[in-house]
Predict the 3D structure of the following.
Amino acid sequence: MIKKIVLTGAGGRLGSYIREPISKICESLVSSDIKEDIGKLYKNEQYVKADISIYDEIEPIIKDATIVCHFGAIVDELPFNELLGPNFIGSYNVWEASKKHGVKRVIYASSIHAVGMNSRTVTLKPDTPHRPDSFYGLAKCFTEDLAKMYFEKNGIEAVCLRIASCAPVNTLRGLSSWLSYNDLIQLVIRSIETSYTGFTTLYGVSNNDRKNIDNTDASHIGFLPKDNAEVYAEKIFKSDLGDELSDIGNQCHGGAFASTELGVSPMKKMNIIHDPKIKK
Ligand SMILES: NC(=O)c1ccc[n+]([C@@H]2O[C@H](COP(=O)([O-])OP(=O)(O)OC[C@H]3O[C@@H](n4cnc5c(N)ncnc54)[C@H](O)[C@@H]3O)[C@@H](O)[C@H]2O)c1
């Protein structure tokens, strides 16, 4: 059994779904976030508050870890200066501390926004070059390159998960980009348990009929998504699609992030459902 896994961003929505399954495959899960607390803890889990943009706060947490799952970030498009600390320097701090403490592998919550300016007619593959749609996406590109550099220079393995959209399906885009919570869990567990990953990039997307994403070149991870957003298609096509159809960003994989001005949040237009898992 893996001795210690660290999870950043543990207080976030995705963190709330992966804490329990990760805690079951290690002796100790150290969950971390900038929030005061993250609610009730699972067996084998402890919580340490830390700001990832401050090296001296995150470094001691990573001591003795075998795996770091780096999910902490500001999840929005904002002016560059507001993303610089958490999303850029935070990544540097995580990898630099991982190097210091001999971490075997970092699993990184990257994003489709690293390649979001690609047309929806283009099939995204693990080696699709960076084409960010925002400063937020640029931070994901930066961190993927950082991860590759620390692998090539220092041997720290990395799995960069270009997550498409992991939230309940309530848009046309979601019919192609959805990653269900169960498939997210499978993706993270496979990324942890695969014996050797080297530096790998793959997409976090469910087995949707309408996805234009091909993970074949990362099949060594063994990620076989089970859910399919098509079950929501009838409901979505009966809803008012006017705003979504008139946003030219939706001609790109990045959706509203592709059409927003740099530094301006598109989140309001996206109407994302915030449904974190609450431990009873
Ligand atoms: N949800 C999605 O569809 C999606 C898609 C692509 C990528 N991702 C990535 O997955 C990760 C988790 O996303 P989420 O949807 O759970 O978002 P979230 O906002 O719910 O979670 C992010 C967490 O990071 C924490 N955080 C922010 N700044 C921090 C700092 N300075 N120090 C420590 N912690 C800090 C926040 O407090 C929050 O709990 C993010 O890296 C995000 O970019 C999510």
About this structure: The two ends are 26 Å apart (CA to CA).
